[in-house]
Amino acid sequence: MLHMRCRSRTICLSLAFITISLHLLLALVSLPIYHQSCDPPLPPRTHILRDLAHTNYTSVGISGLAEPPTDTTQRDSSNKDANKDAKGHVQTLSGVGISVKESKYASVDMPVNVGRYGTNRAESVESGLTKLEALFDHPLYNMPAPPIPEEDWLLKVQPKAKASEKSSQMWVSASQADYVDGQWNSSSNSHPPWLRFHLGISRWQLYPHRDPNMDALTQQLATHRIVSAVQKSGGTQLKLVMSFPNYGQAMFKPMKQERDEETNSDLYYFSDFERHNAEIAAFHLDRVLGYRRIPPVVGRLVDVVKEIKDVTTDRKLARTFFTSPVGNVCFYGQCSYYCSTEHAVCGRPRDLEASLAVMLPDLSLAVRRSWRSPWRRSYSRSKLAKWESEPDYCSTVTKTPPFNKGTRLVDFIDLVILDFLMSNMDRHHYETFEKFGNNTFLVHLDNGRAFGRHSKDEPSILAPLEQCCRIRRTTWLRLRLLSLPQYRLSDVMRASLSHDPLHSVAPLLSEPHLAALDRRLKTVLETVSRCQKRQSEDGGDDGVLYDDIA
Ligand SMILES: Nc1ncnc2c1ncn2[C@@H]1O[C@H](COP(=O)(O)OP(=O)(O)OP(=O)(O)O)[C@@H](O)[C@H]1O
Ligand SMILES: [Mn+2]
Question: Basic and acidic residues bias located where (predicted)?
């Protein structure tokens, strides 16, 4: 008995010894791994402000920028904390359950591509996410703003209709049965995400920075059931309007070519295909630049049979479906460009990549005005536009309304910079909300022809900046921030795009496109420096920066 007890004690002691040794060994092995995966700490904010204040500009307003971030743009304060995490940060797109595991994208393994500098892409995304958080925390993205007056909101919630005034409709049509009757009242908590988005549009932006509604809105676009799909008229290429059970709607543009295919350089920009990934990347870029003038767009794998053919009431569209020789389901719809059997879009065998952009409020509620761009291309293979031949073209433009007053010119330059960065030559028009007159932001719709070429830049897109030498100070400061290694544009874009559901299929922008963003950003900043140099040589004041900070 005594012998047995002694033996079991020895065994217990040996086991305890082995366990402790294994733990020690594990700790020793994992220590260097933790060290490797840590990013170098970001320099304190004062360094960045000093970097920005460095060289050729006076640091007006910088002290004001260091104030704590406030968000006075939210209409309903009860909403404010809705999606905040424990640190008080608003969750990013991925935090809302566009979880790869739960969705149909789960079947596609997350690609781990080898990126620049030999690091793998997953690691670059990780460190980019830290940079993106730091960027969005920066005072330049959190500038204190006065509360928004009532007339500066695009829409108003109508007081609740009395029950007696409500329609006494006793029946619903078959297609209406797919819609869910919402219990909406004037409290924003009961509103579906698309309605919150509409109600959040103001005179100067489509949505606020760190919008608490963004996660819910993008999740709706990415996952909600599609109950209807009809062709959208207007424009030249095929696109559909899709509807969700909660009456939300989205503009659908299908994938027409592989993401890393470069546009054929013999093709004129106006014959180029639209790209679904360009629509998605443009939304992210616009947000990273701090503009917030593109309606949110997400990528989605759409089942062309279940989510288009079976639910469409559009007979003209339904008639164009066919099965390809290899068994993929294809369709081409009706439009003025590329709507033929030769240019059909095809599922694999039924899944088709597409972009879904949230629809702006219906024109019956909020009229938009479409403006012809003064720097519009000639859309001819032989004719030059005026801005290409007249040396003093800018001064003619700035003497003409609406460019002669307010912020129209600098808002247009903002758009030009976005277009140059993503190499979009197809900006013939831009839109504004009529309610706000000329004193408002420009809605940056239709970005499908961007990101066509990464190996070449298109300097003519920058002509308005080159010719007018004018830029918002806040835009310039943010561009300089994005040129610093701590916030590098390509890194924050890679990270931002990693939140999109289609990232799990393949990165939305290939590495050469991301590298092109950094290269083009440098060109923009050099153009501004040249302007400043020229003006100081002419003995003028600093007329290049439009001071929107003071
Ligand atoms: N998110 C949106 N919400 C509401 N309307 C939109 C939205 N996006 C685009 N539109 C409208 O739809 C029309 C066509 O869209 P878009 O310009 O993207 O198509 P397109 O085929 O690329 O046009 P084009 O051939 O003229 O370049 C535009 O006139 C625009 O006003
Ligand atoms: Mn277009």
Answer: 73-88
Residue 337 Cα to ligand 1 middle (Å)? 14
pLDDT tens track for 189-244: 789 999 999 999 999 999 999 999 999 999 999 999 999 999 998 778 899 999 99
Q: Find the 355 Cα to ligand 1 centroid distance in Å.
A: 13
Prediction pTM value: 0.80
Q: Is residue 6 part of a domain?
A: no
Which of 426, 457, 500, 542 does the annotation list as catalytic? Answer: 426
63 lies in which domain range?
A: 45-77+90-156+186-546
**Residue 357 Cβ contacting ligand 1 at under 6 Å:** yes
20 residue type, one letter? I
DSSP labels, 518-546: HHHHHHHHHHHHHHHHHHHHTT----SEE
pLDDT in tens, 301-346: 999 999 999 999 999 999 999 999 999 999 999 988 788 998 999 9
Q: Report if residue 17 sits inside a domain.
A: no
Whether 539 shows a pLDDT value over 90: the answer reads: no
Name the closest-CA residue to atom 16, ligand 1.
446
Domains in the chain: how many in total?
1
Q: Determine, yes or no, domain membership for 472.
A: yes
Centroid of ligand 1 to alpha carbon of 445 (angstroms)? 6
- What are the residues whose beta carbon lies below 5 Å from ligand 2 (ion)? 446, 448
The atom of ligand 1 lying closest to the CA of 253 is 18
Q: What six digits make up the tokens of 489? A: 């544009």
Q: Which residues are annotated as a binding site?
A: 237, 253, 274, 357-360, 431, 446
Look up 426 and say whether it is catalytic: yes
- Ligand 1 atom with least separation from CA of 238: 21
Strand partners, 430: 371
Pick the residue whose CA is nearest to atom 7 on ligand 1: 359
The answer to whether the bond into 349 is cis (omega within 30° of 0) is yes
Question: pLDDT tens digits for 128-150?
Answer: 999 999 999 999 999 998 999 99
Return the pLDDT at 17.
53
Q: Where are the alpha helices (DSSP H) in 358-509?
A: 386-389, 393-397, 408-422, 463-468, 473-482, 489-497
Q: Is residue 250 part of a domain?
A: yes
7 confidence band (pLDDT: 50, 70, 90): low
Query: Based on C-alpha coordinates, what's the Rg of the chain?
Result: 27
